[in-house]
Amino acid sequence: MANRPDEAAGKGANKPALELHVPEPTYRPGDPVDFAHIHVPEAGAQARPDEVCDAIETSSLCYDLVRVLGDDNKAHGPWDPKLDPDTLRTMLHSFAMVHAFDERMFRGQRQGKTSFYMKCTGEEATSISAAMALASDDMIFPSYRQQGILISRGYPLIEMINQIYSNKGDKLKGRQLPIMYSSREHSFFSISGNLATQTPQAVGWAMASAIKGDSRIAATWVGEGSTAEGDFHAACTFATVYNAPVILNVINNQWAISSFSGFAGGERTTFAARALGYGLAGIRVDGNDPLAVYAAERWAANRARANGGPTLIEHFTYRAEGHSTSDDPSGYRSAQEREEWPLGDPVTRLKNHLIELGEWDEERQVAMDLACAEEVKAATKEAEKNGILGHGLHHPFRTMFEDVFEELPWHLKEQSEQAIRERETKFPEGRPGS
Amino acid sequence: MIEAINEALDLKMTEDPDIVVMGEDVGYFGGVFRATAGLQEKHGKNRVFDTPISECGIIGAAVGMGAYGLRPVPEIQFADYIYPGLDQLISEAARLRYRSAGEYIAPMTVRSPFGGGIFGGQTHSQSPEALFAHVAGLKTVIPATPYDAKGLLIAAIEDNDPVIFFEPKRIYNAPFTGYYDKPVEPWKKHRDSIVPEGHYSIPLGKARIVQEGEAMTVLAYGTMVHVAEAVCREKGIDAEILDLRTIVPLDIEAIEASVKKTGRCLIVHEATRTAGFGAELSALVMERCFFHLEAPVERVTGFDTPYPHSLEWAYFPGPVRIGEAIDKIMKA
């Protein structure tokens, strides 16, 4: 330790000892759950400022929680997006589909058909409802739990499963971890495993769109834990400096693997309030309220499209499942949390809303769930014809060396020839699973 | 050289409306080294603009712009400042084409002044090229002359892969003979200073034979090409000097042909020695030319210390260090 000027006076002299604060969630496994500290405001009570207002006018929204669906299953207040029943049913169908997909892929991982999977249970609205509020050619820079966006944009399930299985139908040539999709056709950017890197990229894309006088905007998704990354702060700075037509969606699902949101600074302020320091518009929205999520995203999209500037939206939600198939949340959080979450489940809330409107019933829900499960099952069977992970070397060896550069340089040509040469020795019976 | 770089940028911006120049101080002011002088006035603020001091943001935004379809040419003010942007370069720009199987590309040219010799201290003098040579998917270009700077920069901007373009700032305004206490010959009197007007490009991955010779092969790039040349001239060594121009892709054919002809090889670079790019060059020469060698391959490099401020001329691989290595090779 460095010498200190008052060392002779003894440690700290008569000054109080400093203390380090290490955040700790309110309860751990075995503890009773009490979400009393989460303030749930009345649905419909939040003001809806003009879409091109000054960012500062959103200050109160950064600490409040925009809600539309009340306990009565009715839509309330100025944020009610007034969606027609067909749109609501389309949304509910995407919810059911992503649920069926998650179930089947989770099971597939447990059956050893792939190495890894991540469910989005509880967070369906933060991707599906948000994406539905955007134009289909607005550019998405996703994190890893936005499979709902691809599903709502009509990306074929079989393509998703091929990617998860890294089989010979995988158009990413078996290079990416399962769930790290990419679809240029669906304006869905390639997913990175490094956290928050997509945020400045989304801003750059939005800047490019503005430079070219385009009308498309960009939106990015990042977990609340990853907002601690420098990239996120670079993204906020660039977004505000250039007034980029971009939406920064922060999914506050309370948990970054086993670290609760306090480790990203969530104990002291809201994530939406991060917007204020940058001069961004900010909205904190009930992420389990599909109508509120839709409305907030549409507000931000309209703002961006009108050159009103970027918006940071905190989707206050709850990760009902583990972080991934490699995670066991019972080791760090109370098992009752999921049931006790005060904002309910987005699927149930939307379903009950439609029933309340007289536009849906439990029987149709059961039938839809079943139909989605069947559709996913059929797609899975079809995809499995292309192989599953670990049961084969599905792609020609030379593909390993392709796309490093546009053209193959001499050293990669040499290494490619080496890999093909080794094939004879490693797999004398021929390539497995090919 | 700085004028050649400015010319290349201006020319490409005129040719291609998708090229965007951005970086700290590059706009109104025209860059701290004046590489972008006049570009904002001519091409507009939409295409030439200052950025926040955030290398991660600069490179990250450039990745997004590339994905959109622009061809950004970001400037990192000093190569030493590139580290906060490394994740975006290494994990994102370099691998985007691969991980998306060609769906998305990041066709950017990251320009950055690098190397020592201007009393820049440890944070304005580094040569981090080996770091980038190690990353799959990045191309690394280092010009040594004004003619090459223009032709290589044009090629880099036209390339669809992300390129790191390191500009040896010691020779921005004049060639460098390698001596601290000798007057430096101005570029305009130098034989390498002729820069034709208009469009020309130099393919990435082709070395330049600075001079032909029989006694030994010298492999160098950037400032060290001029230093090595001066030393060989003064010592009267009939060396064949190769300016590598790009270290990824590397012109292995030229290296192999030259070393097989001369039987001796000296590698000179300014970056630190251990695991520097010279180690790769040395290994390649040993693998491919061993039975043609008449002496062990020698490396002349900077020392494995941070770049010192007041002692930079003791650090810099100059005539004494190069001369010793030449003697050792010739005596073997």
Please explain how this structure is put together:
The complex is a heterodimer of chains A (434) and B (332). Chain A has 434 residues and is α/β, with parallel strands linked by helices. Chain A has 13 helices and 7 strands. In chain A, strands 1-2-3-7-6 form a 5-stranded parallel β-sheet, with helices on both faces. In chain A, strands 4-5 form a two-stranded antiparallel ribbon. In chain A, strand 6, helix 9 and strand 7 form a beta-alpha-beta unit. Chain A is globular, with a radius of gyration of 24 Å. The relative contact order of chain A is 0.16. Chain B contains 12 helices and 12 strands. Chain B has 332 residues and is of the alpha/beta class. A 5-stranded mixed β-sheet of chain B has the order 7-9-8-11-12, sandwiched between helices. In chain B, helix 2 (39-43) links the parallel strand 1 and strand 2. Chains A and B meet through helix 6 and helix 7 of A and helix 3, helix 4 and helix 5 of B. Chain A: Keywords: Oxidoreductase, Thiamine pyrophosphate. Chain A: Pfam families: E1_dh, OxoDH_E1alpha_N. Chain A: It catalyses: N(6)-[(R)-lipoyl]-L-lysyl-[protein] + 3-methyl-2-oxobutanoate + H(+) = N(6)-[(R)-S(8)-2-methylpropanoyldihydrolipoyl]-L-lysyl-[protein] + CO2. Chain A: This is 2-oxoisovalerate dehydrogenase subunit alpha. Chain A: Belongs to the BCKDHA family.
Q: Overall 3D geometry of chain B?
A: globular
- In CATH terms, what is the fold-level topology of the largest domain in chain B? Rossmann fold
Number of domains of chain B: 2
Q: Termini distance of chain A?
A: 62 Å
Helix-strand makeup class of chain B: alpha/beta
CATH superfamily of the largest domain in chain B: Thiamin diphosphate (ThDP)-binding fold, Pyr/PP domains
Q: Which percent bin holds the helix content of chain A?
A: 25-40%
**Strand percent estimate of chain A:** 5-15%
CATH architecture label name of the largest domain in chain B: 3-Layer(aba) Sandwich
User: How does CATH name the architecture of the largest domain in chain A?
Assistant: 3-Layer(aba) Sandwich
Catalogue the unreliable spans of chain A.
none
